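Sorry to interrupt, but I need a hand with the structure work. Could you add the entry underneath, on a fresh line?
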Amino acid sequence: MKQKVISSDLNSRKEVIVKQDLNLASWKDKIESKSFCLNKNRGGLYLFHMRKAAGTSLRSFLKHLAIVHRMSFHETEGKIIDSNVLKIPGIISFTALRHPISRIKSLYWYEHVEWYYQMTKTPAKAKSYKEWVDAWLD
C-alpha cells in the first residue's frame, strides 16, 4: 500500500512510509491478538447488519462459526453500531456493503411493494418509486 506524497522532500516521503508501516504493524498486531482470543474461545463475532446487503446470509454464516468455535455472537441492525460490543476483547466485526442505488431499489421492491401486494393485499396503496424516495426526504 503506497500513498501519494506531494512533496519533493525525501525526508517527508520517508516519514509517510514509516507512519504507514506503523499503522500496518498495529493492524497486524490487532488481528493476531483477535485470532489468539478466537482460538482460545474467548473472542466473539459482531455483525452490523445493513438490510438488503447480504446481511441475512452473513448472519447465518457467522452464527454457524460462533456455534462451531464456541464464540459469542452479537448483532445490531439500523443506523447505530453498538460501541459497547466493539470493546469486547477479541471481538471481530463484520458488515456487508452494497452499491447504494441497488440497495435502495431492492429495499423499495422488497419492503414496500411486496408489503402492499403480498402481505396486505392492497396494491393500490403502494407508492411509485419516486413517491417512496421523496417520502424519505424529510
Q: What stands out?
A: Residues 115 and 121 are 8 Å apart (CA to CA).
